[in-house]
Amino acid sequence: MISGTIPTFQTAAVLKGPYGEYHTIVENWPVPRPGPDEALVRIEASAICSGDINPRDGYPPAPKIPNRPLVSGHEGVGYVVALGDNTGSSAGFAVGDRVGLGWRRSTCHKCSLCEGGRENICQNVTVNGYDGHGTNQEYVALPVSDLISIPKTTASATELAPLHCAGGTALGAVRSANLNPGEWLCYSKHFGYRVVAIDSSHKESYCKNLGSDAFVGYEESTTVVQRVTEATGGGVHGTVVCNASPASYSQAIEYSNAGATIVSVGPAMIQLHTGHLMQKGLKLVAQTNGSKQDLKDALAFSNIGLVSSIERIPLASIDVALDALKLGKVVGRQVISFS
């Protein structure tokens, strides 16, 4: 089933060379045709995520041998414009539906994790922009099984796109901290927690405008633990570590209250002595992306005005955007708009 006229060629950001080489903007990239159980999605917006740095530059979980050519991107919003010949109504989507797609391209849907709503850690996952072409193109074909239905909302596509990885992951991470209202968390505000934000000093006003109760700049690294402990009256009850700095993990152990949970979102090679965890009874847990339910719940935030600070960029600026993100110079979210 096809809606309207679908072009033969499109514009896409394609990785062609070795790790470390920038994207090539290809204006005659073929528009794919959806296979069985697949949909062709016309992309409205594709958000830039730190996970897009890895397939370009070769950091894990990118494979040792580059997957090339490869269209990057995994935070997209768009409309279904065609379905594969054998994709029936049981798939739950029809031509014209607005959908979102994130990190997961597909999962097995058969293991106990998938069946238990924890498909984000399915061990048979394939990833958009890693194992298959991603969202930094005008049209993408992918399995319908892991598409997310977009509810009616006044939010724009550029506001919705980041929720399909960053938003869902953040929500899943906050839930993994398993705190009680009123307790201190180094991250989220909208669950009744008190929040201390730790970030670059130039983001202080941004974080406070979002509602953080306290802010600590990380540049003066030797006093981070002391300042967090003082700001929270003895330490936090949970921390979501979103960056890849080993120091962030060691500091979190020090400024955590007894019984706290540290949630790892930013992958890092760290060295720690488990005795430091044991002394306070700390828990170190990992969060990879968000479950399908996390993504759906994150989308609900778009209806109450919690998505902000979007910088729209052209597709041709993708590597400039990734380099700025890599250097920690980005405030908010950078999003490519195709519509």
TrEMBL record:
<dbReference type="GO" id="GO:0005737">
    <property type="term" value="C:cytoplasm"/>
</dbReference>
<dbReference type="InterPro" id="IPR013149">
    <property type="entry name" value="ADH-like_C"/>
</dbReference>
<keyword id="KW-0560">Oxidoreductase</keyword>
<keyword id="KW-0479">Metal-binding</keyword>
<keyword id="KW-0862">Zinc</keyword>
<dbReference type="GO" id="GO:0004022">
    <property type="term" value="F:alcohol dehydrogenase (NAD+) activity"/>
</dbReference>
<dbReference type="GO" id="GO:0046872">
    <property type="term" value="F:metal ion binding"/>
</dbReference>
<feature type="domain" description="Enoyl reductase (ER)">
    <location>
        <begin position="17"/>
        <end position="336"/>
    </location>
</feature>
<protein>
    <recommendedName>
        <fullName>alcohol dehydrogenase</fullName>
        <ecNumber>1.1.1.1</ecNumber>
    </recommendedName>
</protein>
<dbReference type="InterPro" id="IPR036291">
    <property type="entry name" value="NAD(P)-bd_dom_sf"/>
</dbReference>
<dbReference type="Pfam" id="PF00107">
    <property type="entry name" value="ADH_zinc_N"/>
</dbReference>
<dbReference type="InterPro" id="IPR011032">
    <property type="entry name" value="GroES-like_sf"/>
</dbReference>
<comment type="similarity">
    <text>Belongs to the zinc-containing alcohol dehydrogenase family.</text>
</comment>
<keyword id="KW-0520">NAD</keyword>
<dbReference type="Pfam" id="PF08240">
    <property type="entry name" value="ADH_N"/>
</dbReference>
<dbReference type="InterPro" id="IPR013154">
    <property type="entry name" value="ADH-like_N"/>
</dbReference>
<dbReference type="InterPro" id="IPR020843">
    <property type="entry name" value="ER"/>
</dbReference>
